[in-house]
């Protein structure tokens, strides 16, 4: 899906702006959704370490001080799941990413609820002390909780190559952003979780993953390992999603 999408002319949405930080799984989920749909919007990089998500401009958009933030004309959305579903529902007519039938849509919603209610909280509990509190290790309970989630995901993949069914859907994009990040903290054991490990390899070969997830994943890994702060020289904003994809393809 991702490879074929890259050969089409991107749809430019000049009235849409995305404020994001590449190391955030939620931001990368939105970027992958944009790339899978071949949509191009204005993207603004926010330096979390310098508190740019707390400026008066950003607080006016999102008092919760979280990223990503999407503005489409007068509509402002501040949750990655809501943003991905909105973009797919409004700007993707094929129904491949977000099924149009109620049953298929409910399965996607179920996966997004699992990500927001189980996976992401476990990621946050494990990663935030390392990112922001000078902690250097995971607690045994955090590792156990993450591996329990891996077990759930392994069960969800019984009889399927993709979480959404026969091809990569929004379910896979949402999960890919969080699971690939968790994999840095607690690697997915290919012997204990063969289906999940195989899925992670397949999704990592999708073009939307290459262009929208790998760079931020490397940044997160560096931050976890050495606490390095992103160089201001890397910030070139605003730029379009198409420009970001071109830079990713050239790197």
TrEMBL record:
SUPFAM superfamilies: GST C-terminal domain-like, Thioredoxin-like. Residues 14-95 form the GST N-terminal domain. One of its GO terms (biological process) is glutathione metabolic process. GO terms for molecular function: glutathione transferase activity. Transmembrane segments: none annotated. Gene3D superfamilies: 1.20.1050.10, Glutaredoxin. InterPro entries: Glutathione-S-Trfase_C-like, Glutathione-S-Trfase_C_sf, Glutathione_S-Trfase, Glutathione_S-Trfase_N, Thioredoxin-like_sf. CDD domains: GST_C_Delta_Epsilon. Homodimer. This is Glutathione transferase. The lineage of its organism: Eukaryota, Metazoa, Ecdysozoa, Arthropoda, Hexapoda.
